[in-house]
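Sequence dictates fold. Below is an illustrative record:

_____
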Amino acid sequence: MVAGTWAATAASSVIVAASNNRDILILQLHSGDVTALAVGEAAVFAKGVKLYSVGDTVTLTGWMARQAIYGICDTALTAAGGYQEG
């Protein structure tokens, strides 16, 4: 079950908005290319946590889950995924 979806491109952008009412956030890659993630700041492809393959997930808790999540793909590529929050 997915609460929402996200999409990432070659430009860093917010893929999940910040929420003070969230204690856990799970992101999953559904399609596309390697995606680099950043918490509370612009994503840089060469840094941060990466989702490499379809089905890869990352779980954030506490203050990290409440921040805006940014995503970026390599040049001219895109990716899409879903998230669950609680």
User: Anything to note?
Assistant: The chain has one domain: 4-85.
